[in-house]
Amino acid sequence: MPALWRSTFVLVMVLLAISRPSLASEDTGNGTENTITTLPIVIWKWEEIHFPYLVALWVLVSWLCKLVFQLNPCLTRVIPESGLLICIGWVLGGIIYGADKVQTFRLQPFTFFFYLLPQIVLDAGYSMPNKLFFGNLGAILVYAVIGTCWNAATLGLALWGCWLGGAMGNIDTGLLQLLLFGSLIAAVDPVAVIAVFEEVHVNEVLYILVFGESLLNDGVTVVLFNVFDAFVSLGGAQIDAVEIIKGIISFFVVAVGGSLVGVVFALLISLLTRCTKNIQIIEPGFIFVLGYLSYLTAEMLSLSAILSCTFCGVCCQKYINANMDERSVSTVRSTMKVFANGSETIIFVFLGISAIDPSIWVWNTAFILLTLLFIFVFRFIGVFLLTWILNQYRLVPLDFIDQLVMGYGGLRGAVAYGLVLLLDENKYKEKKLMISTTLIVVYFTVMLQGITMKPLVTWLKVKRAAVSERTLAEKIQNRTFDHMLVAIEDISGQIGDNYMRDKWNNFEEKWLYWLLMTPIARKSCDPIFNIFHKLNIKDATSYVKEGERRGSLAFVRNESKADVDFNKKFGADFSEMMPYIMTENMGPDHVPVSSILRDSVPSVCLDMHEQDLKMRESEDFDAHHLLQQHLYKGRKQHRHRYSRKHLEVNKDEHEVQEIFQRTMRSRLESFKSAKMGVAPPKKISKHLKKDQPQKMPNGKSADNSKSHAYGDEDLEFSEGDSASGCEAAGGSFPMRAYRGAGIVNPAFMAEMDTMDPMPPMQQIPSWLAEAEVDSSNMVPSQRAQLTLPWTPSNLRRLAPLCLSTHSNDSFLLADSPATQEGISELPPPPPPQDGQGQGTHK
Amino acid sequence: MNLWFSCFLFIIVTPAHIVRLYDRFEALDKEKTGHLRPQDFGAINRLAMNPIGDRIIGAFFSPGQETVDFHSFVRILAHFRPADKKHPKDPSMPEPVNSRTSKLKFAFQLYDQDKDGKISRAELLQVLRSMLEMQVTEEQLESIADRTIQEADLDKDDAISFEEFRKSLEKVNIDHKMSIRFLR
């Protein structure tokens, strides 16, 4: 369902985003259509819909291009995707130009800045590795602010020098215009940089520096652009010291103000997600809408929209990831990627298409070549200079190779192109030259530098990102290191980074968590706990995979010698964690998209497994009380003695007796129905498919919004009647087997669940009597019960709907030996107690 | 002071550092005895809030000793100097205190309070409890501890030896994590 939701959402948003102008035309269309002579059956309405239609087609075409490349891995290994997309853009542009003789499609600055860029920026901010980013914020800011100013100033001045020297022939320009040109082309483009750097896995410090710089300096470059644009409008004569100072002030106000707007919106989002529990379906929408609003608001206030959106994403990610439901988080994450990647693709394709238009090309060899040269050279000089300064202060200095890669990674991209299109042709006589130069620079950097980047990184032996598996030991140790450094700073009486970080952490824990996080989320935000949680989930997955490798989870039931260790080891971990697995979200990062798109078999199995474990867990923890309410008191008393070695648990007389009775009764039932010739369960094979929808409520069942999960389930059952009952039972087969292994007889369970939450002992006679009348309470659906075990009232509501005792019969028959085994062999008890056993015995 | 200088020139290179640390040492040493006692460290307010503060204080005192003089004070702090990349290690010299191994040793002994060369489950639990106490229940703490030991424990003795400790942190850039800039 999230997948469906996501895709529809994407479609709708894309269509909405692009069809805005078309609404107007639709209105006029309706106006003219009033005069008809006869009733048309079908009419051709191309004029009305052509705009959104074309846009949608373009989106489709660009994405198809991407698809085509991905089919050809050899190509993408050599040429970065961005380059390939530009090439495709050329081809498409050529076709269009060939057909129309004029370039009808162009990347409009408005479209670019308001429909394509925001999601990229938001995504970049949202998926920014926070700790790394803030840890290197100083360096990033130095590169982004000073570096960009340096690039702009040096390029502008150098070009001006060459222009004065007459190297460029006769162009109508001036110092300010060249500085403006310098500033618009100064910024390293995040789109291009990410596209390239994502493919070469450089070490994380280098990555965050390049990435952070490219993101922030976009904001800076737009500000610079506006300042210089204003200067050009003022004219050289009017500019005095006051204006320059004003320009500098406005630069900082715009940049800082934009960031502040972003932070405010981040706070808003975090606060909002605190209380969106009940509208989970549109919960992810808030992130996008508010993120977009942060962009627009900043733009409205003429502050830096890019910075605003970036900081909004960076600041809110931690809190919204903790606050929102786990599924909403993965929805946000993947939708964000769809948007960002999608518009990135469109941007590159259109960068290519825009080039095939003779009307924009003005060639001036000297200007273009000099620009290329200066950009390249000054980028390197700037990086070396700034790094040298930074290295005086950095704990871990950047080495020479890192600097080389940073310098070489100065790719220019779509932001520059968007800005250059914004120029006013009346003021800038050489606008076309600037456009062509920008395009050339973009192509040069994206294509050439992009292609050579990977070989260069390999050749220079740049430190790659360590593919490290995060372990608990590491995490704990990291925490210790943090505390240690703070303590040492305290002892040696210095106020350093660690001190500041510690202060901030304290502040965050004390106030921000309180303000911005739901109480449940607060608990889960501890990093050690988090990694523990993630490891457990990983274990659970591998556990299930292991099971599948052997055929099915039935190996759990068999408990062969080899399994015991495995079982014990992981079982212990699960059992401790399980109640938290759902109440907690998946943790801020690295939830693979596939986790919600998992193919049917594993998901079902895992799901069942979780359910199973949760069931066991609920005995230990008082999170969900069903078993406590429904099981024998005798059981409860003996429970703490459960272990693999103590088998006498089930020797409780009453219990054995009841299990016996129930088993007998189930046999009786099945016998009866078999006799009556009721249809055998022929739909077993379908059960996996059918289980898919049920998975959802399953997942939900443990989070805090059980209520509507059950709503869903109820609905499903009322529709799915007998078939679903049967299939559900089939689905839960392995699990039942597991239960059969010494814990609870499934049939027995089923009975329990359908009964009123009274002490079961008193109920025995009544249900025995009842059984004759209401055979439907005979295993209405094992699956269903396991899915919603927590609220007896629901079960009572469910019971009448499940009319299908008959179809379960063969299962029951098949199972009854197993359940008998459960009693007679008394297999090892479940791992939870094992975990505790380990705990206490050590 | 001159005598000390020669002693640990190899630890902290610039005299400015030594002077600065000496000032700090004297500030901490309220009774001007030339030695620091644990309560002198305890007087540092912020250190009292540090969950493992007392362990760190403990690390300054070698077993059986009640006081620490300036020499050892600096020696301990020298663990936190960033490794010097420009001067490659001289194999003939004794291993410097800011090498990876000695940094790890320092971290290890914060856990290993009974100095038996192993982090037992109880010792790990203690540290965990002090670092996590508010958020997590005791059962979870225990299972986290179990899990951590399981991860690192190669010889299955339910304790982490120094070798295992080092192995488990093999991928961590200790020099980044256990260095303080101003001691450079």
Automatic annotation (TrEMBL), chain A:
It is found in: Apical cell membrane; Early endosome membrane; Recycling endosome membrane. It is a multi-pass membrane protein. GO terms for cellular component: brush border membrane; early endosome membrane; recycling endosome membrane. GO terms for biological process: regulation of intracellular pH; sodium ion import across plasma membrane. Keywords: Antiport, Cell membrane, Endosome, Ion transport, Membrane, Phosphoprotein, Signal, Sodium, Sodium transport, Transmembrane, Transmembrane helix, Transport. The keyword Transport applies. It comes from the Eukaryota. It catalyses: Na(+)(in) + H(+)(out) = Na(+)(out) + H(+)(in). Residues 1-24 form the signal peptide. Residues 671-726, 812-842 are annotated as: Disordered. GO terms for molecular function: potassium:proton antiporter activity; sodium:proton antiporter activity. Residues 75-459 form the Cation/H+ exchanger transmembrane domain. Gene3D superfamilies: 6.10.140.1330. The chain crosses the membrane at residues 50-69, 78-98, 110-128, 140-166, 178-198, 205-228, 248-269, 281-298, 338-356, 368-390, 405-423, 435-453. Pfam families: Na_H_Exchanger. NCBIfam families: b_cpa1. Plasma membrane Na(+)/H(+) antiporter. Exchanges intracellular H(+) ions for extracellular Na(+) in 1:1 stoichiometry, playing a key role in salt and fluid absorption and pH homeostasis. Major apical Na(+)/H(+) exchanger in kidney and intestine playing an important role in renal and intestine Na(+) absorption and blood pressure regulation. PANTHER family: SODIUM/HYDROGEN EXCHANGER (PTHR10110), SODIUM_HYDROGEN EXCHANGER 3 (PTHR10110:SF90). Belongs to the monovalent cation:proton antiporter 1 (CPA1) transporter (TC 2.A.36) family. This is Sodium/hydrogen exchanger. It comes from Oncorhynchus tshawytscha (Chinook salmon).
UniProtKB/TrEMBL annotation, chain B:
The keyword Cytoplasm applies. It is found in: Cell membrane; Cytoplasm; Nucleus. The keyword Transit peptide does not apply. SUPFAM superfamilies: EF-hand (SSF47473). Residues 1-18 form the signal peptide. Keywords: Calcium, Cell membrane, Cytoplasm, Lipoprotein, Membrane, Metal-binding, Myristate, Nucleus, Phosphoprotein, Protein transport, Repeat, Signal, Transport. Residues 99-134, 140-175 form the EF-hand domain. GO terms for biological process: protein transport. CDD domains: EFh. It comes from the Eukaryota. InterPro entries: Calcineurin_B_homologous, EF-hand-dom_pair, EF_Hand_1_Ca_BS, EF_hand_dom. GO terms for molecular function: calcium ion binding. Its main location: membrane. GO terms for cellular component: cytoplasm; nucleus; plasma membrane. Belongs to the calcineurin regulatory subunit family. CHP subfamily. PANTHER family: EG:114D9.1 PROTEIN-RELATED. This is EF-hand domain-containing protein. It comes from Oncorhynchus tshawytscha.
